[in-house]
Amino acid sequence: MTPAVEIHNLTKTYAGGxxxxxxxxxxxEPGDFFALLGPxxxxxxxxxxxxxxxxxxxxxxxxxxxxxxxxxxxxxxMQIGIVPQEFNFNQFExxxxxxxxxxxFYGLTxxxxxxxxDHLLKQLGLWEKRKAMSRQxxxxxxxxxxxxxxxxxxxxxxILDEPTAGVDIELRRGMWQxxxxxxxxxxxIILTTHYLEEAEQLCRNIAIINEGRIIENTNMxxxxxxxxxxxxxxxxxxxxxxxxxxxxxxxRLTESDVIEVVLSKDQSLSEVFDVLRGHGIEVKRMKNKNNxxxxxxxxxxxxxxxxxx
Amino acid sequence: xxxxxxxxxxxxxxxxxxxxxxxxxxNAFLMLTVREVLRFGRIWVQTIxxxxxxxxxxxxxxxxxxxxxxxxIDGVPYIxxxxxxxxxxxxxxxxxxxxxSSFYGAKFARHVEELLVxxxxxxxxxxxxxxxxxxxxxxxxAAVTVVALFFADLQVYDVLALLLVALLTSILFSxxxxxxxxxASSFDHISIVPTFVLxxxxxxxxxxxxxxxxxxxxxxxxxxNPILYIINGFRYAMLGISDVPVYTTYLILVVTIVILxxxxxxxxxxxxxxxx
Lengths: 309, 276
Hints:
The complex is a heterodimer of chains A (309) and B (276). By secondary structure, chain A is an alpha/beta fold.
């Protein structure tokens, strides 16, 4: 099957000499929900900018659904919908006009663009605000407006650059559900986000970019399986005077009734509970100290930075 | 949020198709043009009204108060002599102002990206903005003509030439506004050219006088001002008189439009001021 996105040896050097991309190779299969992660300034937005024709690449080959960006740029543009990081719509236009105009720029008649705009604004909970000036929307609504605008021409590839930044948790979950449905209907999605939980929940494949290079590109599950250790925070039902010596367990008391325990892949939580119960300590509730992906991400980025230093 | 299965994948554009079809390009052009026209229409108090008031003042001061002392120029009463220049001055400034402010505003607020990510060819984006500039230039030109009816006896010597010169002039200065907006990186930059280049060249381009009234040296200097030829072409279309051969008006307009359009297209292709 023709990949949705194929990138070979992509480089980008900005006018001031800053090398944003140092030879990126990336393949994204059609129908994938793909996470592109990296610290600030790693090259995520530049990569997306090149894909969307907002950034001129220095060298390399970019293909979308088998069509070369340099040879068939306008065809490629037809296939892509972009939700950028910054609000980039005309704040002085009514909400529905923002979506309808964009439909027109992709060749839709005003009537067709309005039909699709109505449909999307209803789906994204913006119908009541359709006549309002777009600058009057809340941050979360503005994000949803950009999603509606990106979908009005029914793209096969949707690129979301931090789509849930500044969105409250309830809305964020609603957007996750919406995006999952869009993806299930066949749209390939590329997501960049700083909420690693979001990437873990939504994406099947992942690439991590650091200092202009891809340092990891794999299946999300496979990546998470490589997590060697996890830290759990255990909340006890009563204060613990002092933590007993727990052989083979890396545990410490962080508060009078809170224990942090680091478990390797071959250790189970029930063993920990049994050991603690044997010392008269009952665990009331627990949580992961960090998101698993977050731990991995930090480790990979740190290793990569140390290697290049 | 209520996702529904019918939302849809690429029904409109089959994967094997090329860029936009002719029909799609027409839809896109129409959408951009309407957006541009609505933009200046919504703020008509800032866009249409001021040039009408300004022209009324010119007619009162130069036409009625000073005009009778000037008498006639080339056999035409001074107030009538003023009319073509004042109309065309409005066309020039308004078509330029429309595109420079609209396109720079789109760059500044980054919604120019809506166009840059779309499959609209660059020439079509340029045409859309030009259509907006032409619409404003000609609308204001028409409004100023209506104002002129209250002060002067309007004459039209060659209606076709009148429309053609007005149209070509608005295209030319819309292109000028576009290039200015592409290079501009601050709001100061979009006022420098109109203030320090366009206004002096227009005022010294024969709006208020015939160059035959100048000393010989300044007559020769004036011939280097391209706006002189444009204003005289328009004056010829209205009054049948001109300081310069009329064919030079069309020559300058057409050649400059072709050069500036090609240059604007090149700026778009390179992404100057628009893409990283």
